[in-house]
Amino acid sequence: MIQKRYKEAFERASAERQEKILEVGIEEFSNNGFENANINVIAKKAGISIGLMYKYFSTKEDLFITCISRGCNILENALDEIMKSDDKLLVKAEKVIRTTCYHSKKNANYIRLYNEITSEKNPTLAKALAEEIEFSTSRKYISSIAEAFAKNDVRQDLEPRLFAFFLDNLLMSLQFSYTCDYYRDRFEIYTGINVDEMDEEKVVSQLLKFIESAFTFEK
Predict the structure, then answer these.
(1) Does 8-216 carry CATH code 1.10.3720.10?
(2) How far apart are CA 78 and CA 92, in angstroms?
(3) pLDDT tens-place string over residues 8-64
(4) Global pTM?
(5) 82 and 96 in contact (C-beta within 8 Å)?
(6) Of 4, 11, 141, 187, which sees the most CB atoms within 10 A?
(7) Of all helices (H) and strands (E), which one includes residue 28?
(8) Angle, alpha carbons 33-172-87 (nearest 5°)
(9) How far is Cα 121 from Cα 117, in angstroms, rounded to an integer?
């Protein structure tokens, strides 16, 4: 999990205030990026003084990382439930695809914020965020694929770590296709379908077929 970057004063704030600050922060960062986001604007929209904001967070970076942590926790909790089940790998894959679609629509600002991380211009911050955010998800995927491999449920010439990486890339691209302009346009160029008008069941089934062929068809 991402290391805590807020002060004890924020922990003592009401749940409603914490929720408001993080929601406003996520919207500001996802719309304007880290560099252009304005912590004064966030404080004003959250209904608190800038002085109180700095009692909660030492820096804009601390607020940014706390917002990221909030978004990551939502999807990670859903993945935990799926990956800990005794389902076959392809059943898990279908559930993860559906969860990805649902999460991307319901929490669009989180996904835009995640996309902002991938284009972060501060290499030190980008590396730290990648290590924090990707570590937990990668372990879940690698473990599930390795377990299926050991049970002979998937092709025996695959390498679990590489397949986990390829699988996550597919899901990340799908996430961004719901919310980020470049990826939305990319989806339409390839499919001829506007994301807002797509048949989600068809997308889920077709992606699952693609994953199934990769995991089960040996040369």
Answers:
(1) no
(2) 12
(3) 899 999 999 999 999 999 999 988 888 899 999 999 999 999 999 999 999 998 998
(4) 0.84
(5) yes
(6) 141
(7) helix 15-36
(8) 140
(9) 9
